[in-house]
Amino acid sequence: MVGQKVNFLRNILLSTLFLQNNLLFADGIAIRSVSPITFKGKIYYVQENSQFAVINYENGIEKMMIKMTTMMPERGVYWLLPIPASPEELKMDIAMKLPILRGKELTSWGRDIIKRARMFAYGGQIYPLPFIALYYFLPGGRYTGHSFVHMPGGPSPGAIPPRMVVHEHIEEGGMVAEKITAREPGALYQYLKGKGLNITRGSIPVLDYYIGKDYTFIVAWLAQTSTQSDRAQGLYLKFPTDKIYYPLYPTSVYGDESISVDIYLIGFRQPTAESVKSLGINPEYCLGNLQFHNSLPADFFQGDRENVKFTNIYFEKEARSFASDLWISPHPPFKALYSYFFVRYHIFILLCIYIVSSLLSALLIGRMVYPKWDHRALLEVGLLNLFTLFPVIFGAIYLPRSEGKKEPEALNELAKKGYLYGRFDSIILFFLSAFFFLLAINTPDEPSYPATAFAVLFTLIVAFLLTRVKKEDQPLFSQLIEAGYSPYLFVPAGVGKALFIIFFSLAFILAFTILTSFLQLPLLPS
Fold first, then answer.
1. Which helix (H) or strand (E) holds 322?
2. 298 C-beta neighbours (distance < 10 Å), count
3. 383/296 Cα distance (integer angstroms)
4. H or E element: which one contains 129?
5. Which of 58, 246, 367, 418 has the largest count of CB atoms under 10 Å?
6. Backbone dihedral region of 447: left (phi > 0), alpha (psi from -120 to 50 degrees) or beta?
7. Is 57 helix (H, G, I), strand (E, B) or coil?
8. φ/ψ of residue 324, rounded to 5
9. What 3-state class would DSSP assign to 183?
């Protein structure tokens, strides 16, 4: 509500360059009056380059600190803001200083954590270390931008026309602000004209959208006596609303002009689907700290200023695309909650994935190499991977050996039937698919997960089909197992230990990468 009125007023003030030297700055409209001889009374909008607001929403109350910047000088500038609340509900104050929010964006922070975890997991397998040493990466996360509010000013108040009510008048830090309501457009235009603006009814059509509805206007300007050192920086507005509100529609008066909007919301918030689609908004969910001076209103934020969860909404588009106001749901989205949970508990989560990847790899490869090996012994060897691949090597040495020394006849029969070539081809396909999958998810550009997943799945299905055993050949495989040979690799247990170590390490890297890829999906950019 407050933001809407603020933008509306800024756009009003910027929307008319009139017949005097009065310039309006606001998050609504900024207007300047110029010589009628030079411009013949035509309305010109003061160039606006950015909008900035910090919002805290608690228990149905929106508390907004707001500002804007323009490319015009500061003298004779008004700030006009429409707020969707009654004058009794709307609380207004002047802010000498504005808060600063600094922090790390959680989704990129989470992706960086996963990247580092992969480097750790790969390095534990020893042989990838030379390649990892060549890989340089920066600390995770990034600091989000912050901005100060700056508020230009104008002349002192003029006469109040009929049907126009000034509900409150405050002055501080060289800034003057008034809370007004207008029952019809003519009354508001008369009020602005009383400030020395040569403005006529209907010259700012966007105002008509708000007049007659439950909106209150804030008009603010800098007193002529203000100096740069003691100047107030913005406005503090507080009002009840079901959804967080920020006024964009008034800014549409700037047409093709590019306007940047930078909004910081304490807590995790989600713009409506319509706003996301029409404006291409991609909110950033951050964790950081809140810094503000003691001069700020005491009720703006109460709580721990460290580890503050906040949302940054930033976009830059042509003003004509702001066809409606921006509404933001106070309920946190899943992506923000997931990112925060993962960043906070990532050590425990990644440790569990590391252990699961080690155990699954030990069981899978142990089953392939030699099915007679005890499952509990394989799990113990898999757990040794927590201390890098070296303990796995020593643990594999103590896996039980087969006493069989003679090559079984079944091996020759299976070779004649083509099973050896089939097993060899399936292993090649398995690791080939794993290689391309790892390559895809570790490229600088975001991978195409659906296409990559389909290709890997198709390759694995083909590899699995190549390992099929015909019913009539099952007795031959049973003889092979009894002789102490692997039914998948066709090697005795002694040779199988060396192959187990190699395949275990590759399978672990693949399993850890796949599991962390699923973990990363909610962290990817929308």
1. none
2. 7
3. 55
4. helix 129-133
5. 246
6. beta
7. strand
8. -155, 170
9. coil
Residue 99 pLDDT class (50, 70, 90 cuts): confident
Closest CA to 400 of 381, 427, 386, 385: 381
Instruction: Determine which helix (DSSP H) or strand (DSSP E) holds 8, and give its type and residue range.
Output: helix 2-15
Reference 519, options 323, 328, 325, 349; nearest CA is: 349
DSSP letter (8 states) at residue 137? -
Strand partners, 143: 104
Q: Rounded to 5, what percent of the chain is helix, strand, coil?
A: 40, 20, 35
Q: Is 293 exposed, middle or buried (0-12, 13-18, 19+ CB in 10 A)?
A: exposed
- What is the amino acid identity at position 119? M
Tell me if 65 sits within 8 A of 98, measured CB to CB: yes
Q: For 230, how many CA atoms within 13 A lie in the half-sphere containing its CB?
A: 10
What does the pLDDT look like over 288-314, one tens digit per residue?
A: 988 876 667 888 888 888 889 999 998
pLDDT at 480: 80
Express each pLDDT in 59-92 by its tens digit: 999 999 987 555 444 555 677 788 889 999 999 9
**196-205, 263-272, 340-349, 495-504: segment of lowest average pLDDT:** 196-205
CB atoms near residue 343 (< 10 Å): 21
